[in-house]
Structures are given as structure tokens and as C-alpha cells.
Amino acid sequence: MAAFRDRSLAGMAFPYVFLDATYCKARVNHRVVSQAVVVATGVAADGHREVLGFDVGDSEDGAFWTAFLRSLRARGLAGVQLVISDSHAGLKAAIASVLLGAAWQRCRVHFLRNVLAQVPKGSAEMVAATIRTIFAQPGPPQVHEQLTVIAGMLGRQFPKVEAMLHEAADDITAFAAFPLSHWKKIWSTNPLERLNKEIKRRTDVVGVFPNPEALLRLAGAVLVEAHDEWQVGERRYLSEGSMALLAKPPLNAKEVATPALLTA
């Protein structure tokens, strides 16, 4: 387990990095407390996925996230263009300070949950469907225009929702600066959520772990297993041809939306 966690990440760029946490119970100083299993996965330049790293600690602590990201950098993590995550306290600042030059995509699923917590249950379905139209646009200009339109439309009935959309506009639409064929794969942490569910399925059997180290070992075993399956699988998360677009100069709005690029 230590060898896997400490392995070198040098020699391969990881343009996309996903970060998320799932929570389990462990005993710390004779008390049962909630501990976060934080996981980083990445999409390599060839389109394959890897488990980059994992740790156990307090996911709301900015110092913890900073130390975790620095450990990835120290092992050779490079070439990061976009980080996809929820807005954990301290995480955004850690990304900005450690992964310099990388954009941040706030997970649209988590953002939508936060929005729906501000509206009556009877209106939740309508609000969710309306916000999803932002992500169903054919190109970057339309994405940003639709967000402005939707914010104004919903703001007449839900001013808090309008404020949330305007405040998070840049963060939830960061995906639009990347190839159109990648959008559905990079605008949320859903791929990592499936890993988290498997971790929870295995850790729920134990219930309360005797210490954080025991939790780390079991979660690590699940993650190593998933990593190995990705390496032997023939299917890439993103095609190598489409990943090559990221090595070119930054795409303008017209290029990102051009269907011809999707055949690469």
C-alpha cells in the first residue's frame, strides 16, 4: 500500500484531476469521529484513468488539502489543466496555491444540491431542469449566455438562486473552455462518486474503525483494485485523439464547438 501511495507520477501529464471525499467513522483519542477518505484520480494524456493518491483526515481543513496536493506534486504530478471537485472549505484555496495555472470546475451535481436546498420541494424539479439547460448548450458562448438568462428567470421567484448562479458562474462553467467531447466527463465528480460508493459499501461492513490507519488500509485496498482494473481495461476514459487537443494552443470558442474536432 505504501509503495502504491508513494509511486512516482512523473513522466506523464494529467490534464484532468478529480478530487472528492467520503466520510467514515473511526476512533481518534478514544472518541468516535467522522473521518474523510479523500481521493484524487486523474485522466492521463493518453486518456486512461489512474488513482493518483488518497489519505484520511479532515476534508474541511485547508491545511490538510494543501498538504495532500503538495504530496501529489512532490511525486511528480504535472500538466494539470482542470481540477474538478466540490467546494470543500479550504480546497479551492489549496488548488490555487499548489496547482498553479489549473482551472477549477465546481461539480455541477453538488452545486445543484446546494441550490435545491434553497427552494421549496414543490419547485425543486422545475428549478433543477431549468438549470440543467445551461449544460445542454452547443458551445461556450451559449453556455455563458444561458446562465445569465436562467439566473434572471429564476431570480424573479428565487432571488437566492439567482445570487448563487451569478456567484458561481465562472466555477460551474469552467468546463466550457475545454473540448466539447470532454464536457460530460469533466463537469462533475460523478466518476469519483462511483469509487466513493464502493468504499462506503466496504467500510459500512466494519462500522467504526479502531483508528484512521485501519480505515486508510481498507479504503486503499478498494482504490488499488479499481486502479488495477483501469490499467488492464481496453477502454479509455477519453480518447487519445481528443486528449491531443489539449496539447494545442488554447481553443477559442469557435474551435471548441466545431463538430469536426469530435472525430479526432
Strand proportion, as a percent range, falls in: 15-25%
Low-confidence stretches: 250-264
Helix content: 40-55%
Shape: globular
- For this structure, the quaternary state is single chain
Q: SSE order, as H and E?
A: HEEEHEHEHHHHHHHEHHH
Radius of gyration from the CA trace?
19 Å
How many E strands?
A: 6
- Structural class computed from helices and strand pairing: alpha/beta
State the separation between the terminal residues, measured CA to CA.
37 Å
Overview of this protein structure:
There is one protein chain. This protein is an alpha/beta fold and 264 residues long. The protein is 48% helix and 17% strand. It contains 13 helices and six strands. It has helices at 2-5, 62-74, 91-98, 108-116, 121-132, 140-155, 159-167, 169-172, 183-186, 190-206, 212-232, 240-243, 253-257, and strands at 16-28, 31-43, 49-57, 82-85, 103-106, 208-209. Strands 1, 2, 3, 4, 5 and 6 form a six-stranded mixed sheet that branches. Strand 2 (31-43) and strand 3 form a beta hairpin. The radius of gyration is 19 Å and the shape is globular. The protein starts with a helix and ends in a 7-residue tail after the last helix. The model is unreliable at 250-264 (pLDDT under 50).
